[in-house]
Design brief:
By secondary structure, the protein is α/β, with parallel strands linked by helices. The protein contains 16 helices and 20 strands. Helix 2 links the parallel strand 1 and strand 2.
């Protein structure tokens, strides 16, 4: 059927609801490099998503170099690696997991072994459920199999599953019970115990049976794996399953070791990884190596295609307000690349143009920018400028509770002093557009089915509408509007926008003087209770019902 969604589109739809997973994956690690090397090939695509960090907590140092070299092959996962420099025998992972919990920066925590392969998208399945079930935790299902056993859709349901397929829970609840019980010394029991203690503080269990994982082991390891009821004493089983108090450990829990050797928030390998990534493009220029060591407050991300008319003016205007600029040239055939020259231009990259794919270009920019350290990113187009009457960032850049910011925008019409007031999905010609967002690690825009006309932000939480006015010069001349009209008819093969006829409107009644704009105070036009309602607005935008929040 024509309208049937592909599996990838279904996933994109769900990810547009959970646009920021807010998840720390805590991975206790003891001599598991060989197994992890195999499993990460499958799991990487699940980790490489908005708001997910993966914390590898190594309980001994012999494999640390191998782990670093391995994870450098996956530069778009937000890695953190913490190492215990003391060599010792294998032990219960509770204190190791607790180190990861202490270092976690996200709202939710998933505890997962390095040898566990995700057969289904357990992160999405388990995390999505928690959107509707506060004060719950989710666990998936797990089957123990040989390391080389082939599993597919035909035989997956024949395996024996246990309710140990990871745990996702809000980090604050793990802090409330002082983490995993560190009095467990040998293998087993810590996972049952933590679930019981979460129950004691009123955090309830949700088993997600369809979230299936495979715990791959050698044939020898499988043969040694005990059945708990036979292997452990009654006293031990009571400790596992019948904890009498929720809070364990003293206040020093989770501090057994603390050495960080890889950190996505301050990546010492960023220049190396960036240059390797950029080698796949036509050409690139990096201002200097210092851009990878500097910390910026706010950076501009922009794309260009044959923008020689606007390039110099754009760079001058953006340089007034931002600490640096990152440019993607989408295969320009004029002298755009040469004109892209400014002290604040930190990095410029040129790619091969096959079509106008706005989504692809902006996600490439987000990939490139992920190698630099900044508090904020902002998308702007080369043919846009700020109205000097309405521009300023001090009101929100230092407020940690503000994550995403909408600017207000008009399309200039026939002169720089007039704008089009009948713009579709605007209020008297003024649109509200997502443009600026606080950094949550490497991110991508999930726009469901759109490659054009989507919200220009990877996520939408803690947002505000700011009194910043953007002037769009791309429609200032009749000739430019006709070229734009023809371009969209040619490129918008998926009908991302229902009609471009407004670009041909020459009725003078629909043109207004720019000086008549009087923007309201910061926050004007923000939907009521935005923290709750913006996801619904975003879904309406996906459905084409509320495009004023789109680009």
């Amino acid at each position: 059927m024509k309208n049937k969604l592909t599996p990838r589109q279904v996933q994109q739809f769900h990810e547009s609801v959970i646009h920021n997973f807010g998840l720390s994956v805590v991975m206790p690690f003891y001599k598991r490099l060989a197994q992890f090397t195999k499993v990460i090939k499958v799991n990487a695509k699940y980790f490489q998503r908005n708001g997910i960090e993966v914390i590898i907590v190594m309980d001994e140092p012999t494999e640390k170099d191998g782990v670093i070299e391995l994870i450098k092959q996956y530069p778009f996962i937000n890695w953190k690696v913490i190492v215990n420099e003391n060599i010792h025998p294998s032990r219960n992972p509770s204190p190791v997991i607790n180190v990861g919990i202490r270092h976690a920066t996200k709202k939710y925590v998933l505890v997962s072994d390095p040898e566990k392969e995700f057969f289904t998208d357990i992160i999405l399945q388990m995390r999505e459920l928690l959107e509707d079930y506060p004060k719950h935790y989710t666990v998936g299902t797990l089957a123990f199999i040989e390391e080389n056993e082939v599993v597919n859709n035909e035989n997956i349901n024949r395996l024996n599953y246990m309710d140990y397929g990871g745990l996702i829970v809000e980090r604050k609840y793990l802090l409330e019970v002082n983490g995993y019980d560190e009095t467990f010394l040998t293998w087993g029991g810590e996972d049952d115990d933590i679930l019981r203690r979460l129950d004691l503080i009123g955090v309830k269990k949700l088993v997600v049976e369809e979230a299936k994982s495979l715990h791959r082991e050698t044939k020898e390891e499988l043969a040694k794996r005990p059945v708990k009821g036979l292997y452990f004493s009654g006293k031990q089983l009571k400790k596992f399953f019948y904890a009498e108090k929720a809070i364990v450990n003293d206040d020093n829990w989770g501090t057994d070791f603390n050495k960080i050797i890889y950190d996505w928030e301050n990546n010492i390998y960023s220049e190396e990884l960036c240059r390797k990534y950029l080698d796949g493009f036509v050409e690139y220029e990096i201002k200097d190596a210092e851009i990878f060591r500097n910390k910026y407050q706010k950076l501009i991300l922009c794309q260009a295609w044959n923008e020689s008319e606007f390039m110099s003016g754009f760079l001058e205007d953006m340089a007034k307000y931002f600490d640096g600029i990152i440019l993607l040239d989408d295969g320009s055939t004029d002298n755009t690349w040469k004109l892209a020259n400014h002290e604040k231009l930190l990095l410029k990259v040129k790619k091969v143009r096959t079509e106008f794919n706005d989504l692809q270009n902006r996600n490439i920019l987000l990939d490139i920018a992920s190698f630099l350290k900044s508090d904020w990113f902002c998308f702007m187009d080369i043919d846009e400028r700020f109205d000097e009457r309405y521009v300023g960032f001090n009101h929100f850049v230092n407020k940690q509770n503000i994550k995403t910011v909408l600017f207000q925008r008009v399309q200039l019409w026939n002169s720089k002093n007039h704008y089009y007031k009948k713009l579709p999905f605007s209020i008297n010609g003024i649109s509200k557009v997502y443009r600026m967002f606080r950094i949550e690690g490497r991110m991508q825009i999930n726009s469901f089915k759109r490659k054009l006309h989507f919200a220009q932000s990877p996520y939408y939480s803690n947002q505000m509408v700011e009194k910043i006015l953007v002037l769009d010069y791309s429609t200032i001349a009749k000739k430019k509007r006709k070229l734009k009209y023809d371009m969209y008819l040619r490129e918008d093969i998926d009908s991302d926008f229902e009609s471009y006829d407004y670009l041909l409107d020459e009725d003078s009644k629909n043109i207004e003087n720019l000086q008549k704009i009087n923007l309201k105070q910061t926050g004007a036009g923000l939907p009521p209770n935005p923290g709750l309602n913006m996801d619904k607005l975003h879904l309406n935008a996906i459905a084409g019902k509320d495009k004023q929040y789109l680009s």
